[in-house]
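Lab notebook, bench 4. Still working through the backlog of constructs that have no structural model yet. Next entry is a single chain of 200 residues. Request: give me the structure tokens for it.
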Amino acid sequence: MTETTAARRSRITPEREAELYGAVLDLLREVGYDALTMDAVAARTRSSKATLYRQWGGKAELVVRAVRHGKPGKLEGTDTGSLRGDLRALVTREDDCAMEQNSALMRGLAMAMHANRDLRHAFREQLIEPEMREFRRLLQRAVDRGEIRADCPALDFVVHMLAGGFAVRALIEDQPPTQEFLRSYIDAVVLPALGVPTPS
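Model written out:
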């Protein structure tokens, strides 16, 4: 975040910011990214459109900040002492209901990103790249502990495997991801690909 952006945002209280982000997420679920307008956000949150633009610059940044605020906790600090424990801890950050809502929201945003460069850029800069850095640290700890070989070819594809578990279940089985499904998927697919033993 630039100093200018931080200065803009300092004029709004954390409580008001959380209220605005919640309203943005509600609107996203109702109408999708393309149909969401700053006018609709202003009306829903009893704000002026000028205030929204002054605080966030535009729709893409506001939406990404709302998604980031609504995420269930940071990867940073997740260290249970084992890779399996860390991955299972990440899965349990959301209950099944929240996971279903958020996976549907993310599928809609993923489609919107294909056609919207500003949204894609904001998403990569503010969400994907920071989380990828933390996820690489999580995997490096597993390498340092000797759980994964440093030259394991699957290391570069762990995020792809996990994202696939989320997306493909809805596509193939018409079912949302659940904690139980993801725990089983981690044990049956992700850990074996990394050469990490799982309980029999």
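Notes after review: Residues 1-9 have pLDDT under 50 and may be disordered. The two ends are 46 Å apart (CA to CA). Flag for follow-up if needed.
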